[in-house]
Amino acid sequence: xxxxxxxxxxxxxxxxxxxxxxxxxxxxxxxxxxxxxxxxxxxxxxxxxxxxxxxxxxxxxxxxxxxxxxxxxxxxxxxxxxxxxxxxxxxxxxxxxxxxxxxxxxxxxxxxxxxxxxxxxxxxxxxxxxxxxxxxxxxxxxxxxxxxxxxxxxxxxxxxxxxxxxxxxxxxxxxxxxxxxxxxxxxxxxxxxxxxxxxxxxxxxxxxxxxxxxxxxxxxxxxxxxxxxxxxxxxxxxxxxxxxxxxxxxxxxxxxxxxxxxxxxxxxxxxxxxxxxxxxxxxxxxxxxxxxxxxxxxxxxxxxxxxxxxxxxxxxxxxxxxxxxxxxxxxxxxxxxxxxxxxxxxxxxxxxxxxxxxxxxxxxxxxxxxxxxxxxxxxxxxxxxxxxxxxxxxxxxxxxxxxxxxxxxxxxxxxxxxxxxxxxxxxxxxxxxxxxxxxxxxxxxxxxxxxxxxxxxxxxxxxxxxxxxxxxxxxxxxxxxxxxxxxxxxxxxxxxxxxxxxxxxxxxxxxxxxxxxxxxxxxxxxxxxxxxxxxxxxxxxxxxxxxxxxxxxxxxxxxxxxxxxxxxxxxxxxxxxxxxxxxxxxxxxxxxxxxxxxxxxxxxxxxxxxxxxxxxxxxxxxxxxxxxxxxxxxxxxxxxxxxxxxxxxxxxxxxxxxxxxxxxxxxxxxxxxxxxxxxxxxxxxxxxxxxxxxxxxxxxxxxxxxxxxxxxxxxxxxxxxxxxxxxxxxxxxxxxxxxxxxxxxxxxxxxxxxxxxxxxxxxxxxxxxxxxxxxxxxxxxxxxxxxxxxxxxxxxxxxxxxxxxxxxxxxxxxxxxxxxxxxxxxxxxxxxxxxxxxxxxxxxxxxxxxxxxxxxxxxxxxxxxxxxxxxxxxxxxxxxxx
Length: 882
Description:
The chain is mainly α. Among the domains are: 183 residues, no CATH class; 121 residues, de novo design (two linked rop proteins); 173 residues, no CATH class. Helix content is 64%, strand content 6%. It contains 36 helices and 8 strands. It is globular and about 85 Å long.
């Protein structure tokens, strides 16, 4: 491990690695551990430049008996997971959640001081934070590769590291913690790391709620307490009690786009689970408050509420506890399909908030401010953020499903065929029906099972309080009628609940037309009467990148946001942009702070929604200290983008990007869409075919089971290329664009100017640099050598690697660097440390893929499991599933 890496991180990796070695030795013998060390040593020498070592590694792995393949893969997989724990622990301890260049760490206190220097008054800063609406939307895809039972053990291992570090003066504590660590690592080693069944959408939702219970429940009041202290220093006042700059929403159990496993019944169950979990967590808070608030001094309002009692706060809290207990029992009875007659329950946020606020005001009026601003304030902050449902549940469905429902309805009523109507005809029909007082859907209408499911979803909406639900998102939205169709179905079936409706623009064509679609939508008086002066629009990162290539997609996303900001400004509508980002660069991933500040000026105006996906939820919110830092980063970035927005790009830069994106798009499409050898190459060289057996999540890997790349979801598309280390989706086309420009006079100067002065372009290059550092064409070559035997496909592979090499050269030239990641050593060292453990997994995976193909998919259960473990291990080592 590099000597530059922080000593505590190096020590913890050693402690965990040594413990794992002892566990494996106890199970399989010292001889097996020697084999693991031999493999690691050969891999490490290969990384240090010994030319023959990679061949030696492959020969050694091929010589292993079948009985060794599974335990070898498990050993390397387990070490990589332990390395991640050590790194997470380091980041939590030193508050390094995201990877920044030196001096670029966002600090909220420094930002508040800077904003005041630039003319913002303390009052304006408080109002900006009080009115901020940032929603972090927890989504289950790409679902966590690691099983939840192992995550719990890994969290306990992290606690052991904390105990060991703090036991310098108490050796007996250190010994106890070390013993517990050995036990937990042994437990992890003897636990199957691969699920045998896919998680259900309800399982995914439970996992999301567990993150709230185990981490965010503590991090949220801590974040607000730190924010209060900052504001008291800079503005002399606290954040308003009901302010919640950051809130949480979820897609787990609500995202039915292409996932037949998410039904109305599932959505209803997840909503009830949220109510039960919230009631259970608040019950714990209230029990603590009842114990602590033993004071007798109270104001007249509280005395009038509870009567003449000795301990007024405890009396009010007892009454509230009865309702919270009843709410928990009600939710449990509903989940179990049983009746409930246990008295009044808490239905809304205010029913919980108001009694607590009465206690707070009474304490302040009685001069007991110190007590009021203790644990009681923490609970008030939780209620403001989590409500009585923990998260707002979003609902997502494809536009074509709503179109199908209306087609069946218009045909059944003898009104014609909705599918055949023009956009103008559809709008006229939908607006007429939105304004009509009579019901459109017959009471006993016989429709298809698909349409019945759509209607049942709207019935769930009708049965809920609006505060339990977030936004209704329409994927593959293309026209104003797509939004009007949802509005009509919601009116017909959704009762009095009217959710915000967000079209999701996710292909290159849809992004280019997004501004025009929203312009036409907001120009319809019938729609404005319904939606008011707020409009939410979702920008899709994953599918646009798969559709057009990363560079063209990134520029299309930027231009779409600019157009949407201008259109909403002209119509007097407040715009909220919802960014559908994934964890990887190929799906819009990267440090949140840099991503937010690279958006167009005016697009982040105190309001933002963004997805947090899969394993990134655990990396950014899985532990209270890291969650606290992540929340600060979001608040800091949104405040800076709102008060001190980035500069408007120069016209010349826009022209440059238009041209670069055009070249990149042509190059990308020329390979992915137009080269007849590409799909066969992709299917041959990657583990895409075996991915369907890895129980990653509740969603199918493909939208359809036939067809080419276009039918594959963005997640497995990225995952498959990540496994081979070619990382193709995130860079293909960029090399041609930059190389073309560098060959022209003044090209290098303008690209460096854009890098230095335009956050959008600088951030794009940073992400590309990180991606190139994680890629490895030598490993990609090995996959090809082992798995491809057609000359045409081998020729395509050689061309792709040549393109990669050219991109590597031009990126270093633009950045004026000798090697990648010169200014972000933590990432570079993390990759270097992991490589000797990932390399054997690559070698074993390619070998197992070939054996699986030779056996026509009929390899033994142990070898099949070993193949799955290689996928999980590589994903853990690169910290990316998809």
